[in-house]
Each structure stands twice: as structure tokens, then as C-alpha cells.
């Protein structure tokens, strides 16, 4: 790790007017990448003393950006999809340290990105993407480009995108709110630009609008092992079922795309359909529309469909 200056502001204003650098909360991503020389900030701003905490479930869900993942998962009234996504993330030790804001900003687990000895367009724009023709079993099949095929790593982001979450962002000039689904950017020709966070901005809180039937939600994660592993595919699902028919649905998936991926076509196919495995299979047929599998990850196309069906079946069977 290279030398750096550290500051510990106690007010949001002081943090936002600090010299340019990297914000440090739990450090479970930043410190990791600094050790690998992937990130080399000259100035690090420790924001743990800022008043960016709190969990409120009285009208929807509000989560302060500095809340720890384990605390949010344990809080009563948090939507089940969010709780389950958190509990299936990382290890208990990491969940005790990692912040909600940091989780949403975590960088890809692509091995090429994390190895400074090889090219990577996210690290060095224009250097190339060796994953396209290399070891790509864990990589994306949706939202990819000729410049990048890295998957987005956050489980939590998938659940929050399904529930139409927003972020409140603060800067020295004010604050703004942006939908989480719009916050993340597809790689296109600029994979180094991963989100809409502007220089000097900070995530203040996560806001999930009230959705009474989001209490009927779940998160399913398929991975190579049950503990401390990133998703091969995951699905966050919320259903409004009345008289055995689906009135409304929210579906998003992870582990298969460059950003948390909302499945609007699947949602539309579910609305008005009977809540049966046959209907789920029919709706999930559209889950992989537009997929571009690579040499070693073609299995994700069928896995994606099966994971969506599994989540739907688990959710409806659990409510009977």
C-alpha cells in the first residue's frame, strides 16, 4: 500500500470540502484495492464520524449510508428481499464492518480489474478487456460491451433496484436524489465511469418508497459455495398476489449483468397471470433477452431463467 494522508472530519460540510481523495467508511473494498495498488488515493477521508446513520421503516424504508450491513439485516421492518440480500453477502465479519453506501459503491470482482499486471479498461481506459477472450465464467451476459464484461458485485443493489430505491446524494453545493437503477451506468465505451456519483459527492442515505406488498419479497442467490462467495446468478422478487393471481411484480437479477438488472419484460408477463409454476416459466422465458454469452459463461442464460422461477416458486409456496 502506498503512503497517503488521512483526515477525520466530524461534519458533512468538512468532509465535502476536504482535499480530493477517497472516502473511507467500512473500508472493506477501498483498503482491499489500495493494498493491490488498484486504487492509489493520495488523500483518504474517514467519514465514520459523520451523522449519516439511522434506519426508519415508518413509511417505506430509509437507511443512512453509514449503517452497517449487519445492523440493517437485523432491523425489524426491513423488507425481506433486502434482509436476505444482506445476509447472503460476504461474511459475518465483513457485514459487521461494511457500510450500506460502501456496498452500493463496491467495485467489480473481475480478476483482471484487480490484477494491475494485466490490461483492464476500467482501470486504464483503452488498454483492453482480456476477459472477453479469457477466463470469463463469472462474467456478465447482459449489459456488456466490447470494452467491458465485468459483473456488478452488490447483492444489496439488486434487491434495492427491484424495490425502486433512490439515493440521496450530497455535495458542497447541495443535494439531489437519483433512482438507484439510473445511478449505475452501462459500460459502453467508458467502463471506467461506473455510476453517476459526481466529484465531491457522497451518498447520504438510501430511500425505498413505501410498497405494502414488498413484505412479500425474497432474494435467491446461486453460487459455487454457500459462504462468502459472489453470485453466479441472483434474483430479487416481490409479488402482489390476490385470489391466486399476480396483480403486480418486481423482479431484478444480479451476477449476470454489468449493473443490477431489472427485468421489466418478466414483470409485465407476470401481471395478471395465475401464481403457478407454469406462469413463472412462461414469464421467465424473457429473462435473458439480449444476452451475449462468452466462451465460458453460456450456462448463465439458462441459469438466469431457472433462478427467477425458483425465486417465484419459493415466494409463493412460502405464503401458502
TrEMBL record:
Pfam families the UniProt entry points to: CO_deh_flav_C, FAD_binding_5
Residue span, FAD-binding PCMH-type domain: 1-213
Keyword Acetylation carried by entry: no
Keywords: Oxidoreductase
InterPro entries: CO_DH_flav_C, CO_DH_flav_C_dom_sf, Diverse_Substr_Oxidored, FAD-bd_PCMH, FAD-bd_PCMH-like_sf, FAD-bd_PCMH_sub1, FAD-bd_PCMH_sub2, Mopterin_DH_FAD-bd
SMART domains, per the entry: CO_deh_flav_C (SM01092)
SUPFAM superfamilies: CO dehydrogenase flavoprotein C-terminal domain-like, FAD-binding/transporter-associated domain-like
Statement: the UniProt record of this protein carries the keyword Iron-sulfur: no
Protein name as annotated: Xanthine dehydrogenase family protein subunit M
Provenance organism: Saccharopolyspora thermophila
